[in-house]
Amino acid sequence: xxLTDNAALNEMLVGIESLAGSGINSNWDYTDATLEAGDxxxxxxxxxxxxxxxxxxxxxxxxxxxxxGMQLIGGQFVFRFYKIFSDVGxxxxxxxASFEGKHxxxxxxxxYVHNGSSKESVIDDRVRGTIxxxxxxxxxTRSFVVPDYRNREVLFCYCNASSGxxxxxxxxxxNWDSGEIxxxxxxxxxxxxxxxxxxxxxxxxxxxxxxxxWNSDSSEWGEVAGKPTERRMLIPHTTGQKFxxxxxxxxxxxxxxxxxxxxxxxxxxxxxxxxxLYAIRPTIMGTGTVSIYAGGEKNPGEGxxxxxxxxxxIGTDHRVxxxxxxxxxxxxxxxxxxxxxxxxxxxxxxxxxxxxY
Length: 357
What we know:
Layout: E1 3-5, E2 8-10, E3 13-16, E4 18-19, E5 25-27, E6 38-41, E7 49-55, E8 58-63, E9 67-74, E10 78-85, E11 96-99, E12 102-106, E13 111-114, E14 119-121, H1 125-134, E15 144-148, E16 153-158, E17 170-175, E18 181-185, E19 193-198, E20 229-237, E21 242-245, E22 259-266, E23 274-286, E24 289-297, E25 305-313, E26 320-327, E27 329-336, E28 342-354
Antiparallel strand pairs: 1-2, 3-6, 4-5, 7-8, 8-9, 9-10, 11-12, 12-13, 13-14, 15-16, 16-17, 17-18, 19-20, 20-21, 22-27, 23-26, 23-28, 24-25, 24-27
């Protein structure tokens, strides 16, 4: 795809290779009528061909501004080409991934999932504005997509413009079960692979020797001696000369890191009323302590004024009190910076709503 033919670059050209009877690749000569080799120029739209990926019995071809299907039909034409979408395309090479018979695609203006006939955007206008403003255009060709089948997620990895990193250091994460979107930081990495990662002998333990309690042990159910490999993402560090097995342990290469979950824009279906927050009652499972922040924004786009942190000890505390937090919209954040394992199951906000002014 996107080929140089007779010394001339044709960015819309798709070439087809003839196969030998044994199935071994043999010949690209599309001028030989005895072969199945051929070529097609997808010139209906102006964009160049960027990349392609199989889907079922079709091959999906992505241009900058459209999406095409290629399917084996045999006979004189061998393959048929058909346009699937004319309003979306592909941002860059390696910006599409396959999962459960669908494709996750990062386009020039939208991020979407499709099944070969219908598509759905997976981001709203707010996330769309955020993600496309964060991508560093200087290194946009280093962006890539990787599926994380272990966690049923897809990561779109890119260079954050504000960091100045020359390699992707941030990722938008899409969970294909819940449809939720989140962001995570990365090492500056050129690629991420998914596959089997061997356990070091010191990291596997017999059931009887596991001293952890049920509500504090972060090891996995079924993790016993004799389990030689597990499947997870493997992340190379471009400067640290290391490979990191994603999701193993609670540290970042041996160093505790900042982990947080945040919610903004809580107007409780009353965008005009002034909300006054008095306390937060979280339900948190795990160990250690969590720092809780609360904020308020008086007018849309004005920015939140944050208060805190308030320390919440898991298993001991039941609420944290706040005073002076108000606004037409509220925000909350739960954060830790220590080597700990915790999970936020939910929270309640105590407060009042007064008339708009």
